Amino acid sequence: MTLKRSVLFVINPIAGGKEKRHLHRIIKRELDHSRFHYEFAYTESADHARRLSKSASYLGFDVVAAVGGDGTVNEVARGILELGKEQAAMAIIPFGSGNGLARHLRIPMRPAAAVRLINRLKTTRMDAGLMNGFPFFCVAGAGFDAHISQLFAKNKKRGFSGYIKSALREIRLYQPARYEVKSGGKVIREKAFLVSIANASQYGNNAYIAPGASTSDGLLDVCILQPFPFYRYPEMALRLMTRRIQSSRYMRTVRGKEITVLREAEGPVHLDGEPQHMGNQLDIRVMPSSIAVIVP
Ligand SMILES: Nc1ncnc2c1ncn2[C@@H]1O[C@H](COP(=O)(O)OP(=O)(O)OP(=O)(O)O)[C@@H](O)[C@H]1O
User: Fold this and answer.
1) Is 273 in the pocket of ligand 1 (CB under 6 A)?
2) The domain spanning residue 9 has which CATH number?
3) Residues 141 and 74 in one domain
4) Hey, which bits of the chain come out as E strands?
5) Phi first, then psi: what are they for 62, rounded to 5°?
6) Cβ-contact 57, 90 below 8 angstroms
7) pLDDT tens digits for 169-215?
C-alpha cells in the first residue's frame, strides 16, 4: 500500500476578479485520487495565505497549491520559506490578473491542466529575492510599476483591463526619479522611469521586463529603464510584449547576487505586484534554490 500525498489548495477568492467555484469540480475530475488527498482553504484577508501555507507545511502537507495570482503565490511561498526546514512543494493554479511567475515557469493557464501537473509531482528548485528582508519570487521594484501597483491595490475591480486603464491614465503624469544602483563593485547613477529587480522574466500577461532572467541561476536581473519620450510609448509596450526591451537604448541591465538601490526619497515599492512602503535605501539579495515548485 502506498501512502497518499496530501495537497492543500489555498484559494484567494478575489484574485483576478475570477469566479473559482468550478475549481472544486475540476480538482475532483483531474487530481489522481488514488495517490492524493486534498483539502481547501479560502483566504479571508491579505497575509492569510502565508499563515495557511506555513501551517500546512508544518503539518506535513506535501504540496501547497496557490490558487490566485502573483500576490497569492508570494504569500504561499513565504509561508513555506518561513518554516525554515522546508517540507511542502508549491504548486500554482493561475487565477490572477497577470500570473507572471506561472507564465515564466510555463505552468498552463487552464486550471484543469495546472491541476493535472500536480499528479506528476515534478519539482524544480527556484531562487527567491529579498528586498529589505521581504521575499519576492517574480519581480520587485521601484518607480512607475510600484506606483501602478499601489493604485491597482486600491482599485476594487481587478483583472487585466484594470491594470491597463491605470497605466494609461498615469503614464503621462508620472515623474521619473534619480537612482543609484550598486552591484558587484559596479555603480550606475541614472534618472529612471522604473528600476525592476527580476527573478523571473515577466511582470505577468507576457510583459517581459527581463527576457533573459532565470529563476534558477542564483542571480537577480536589475532593469533600469530611463525616461523615454511620449511618442515612444507604443514602441516600448511592443518591446515589452515581444521580449525586446533589453535592446532598447533606454534600458540598462545588471545581474547580481546583492544589489543596493538608493533613491531620492522613501516611497512605494512592489513585491510581486503587491505595494509596500519602504525607505530610500533598498537592500536586495538573492536566496538561491530556496523553494521547490511543481513545473511541467
Ligand atoms: N479574502 C481576501 N480579501 C481581500 N484581499 C485578499 C483576500 N485574500 C487575499 N487577498 C489579497 O489579494 C491580493 C491580490 O491577490 P493576487 O495577486 O493573487 O491577485 P491579482 O492581483 O488579481 O493577480 P496578479 O498578481 O497575478 O496580477 C493579495 O494582496 C492578497 O493578499
Assistant:
1) yes
2) 3.40.50.10330
3) no
4) 5-11, 36-42, 63-68, 89-94, 123-131, 134-136, 139-143, 177-183, 186-192, 194-198, 220-225, 251-256, 258-263, 267-271, 274-278, 281-294
5) -80, -35
6) no
7) 788 889 999 999 999 999 999 999 999 999 999 999 999 999 999 99
Interface predicted TM-score (ipTM) over 0.85? yes
Q: Probe ligand 1: pick from 50, 72, 152, 166, max atoms within 8 Å of CB?
A: 72
Give the nearest ligand 1 atom to 75 CA.
Answer: 31
pLDDT digits (tens, 9 = 90+) for 124-168: 999 999 999 999 999 999 999 999 888 877 765 666 676 677 777
Asked whether the beta carbons of 189 and 178 are under 8 A apart, the reply is yes
Ligand 1 atom 22: residue of nearest CA:
16
**pTM recorded for the entire structure:** 0.95
Range of the domain at 78: 5-121
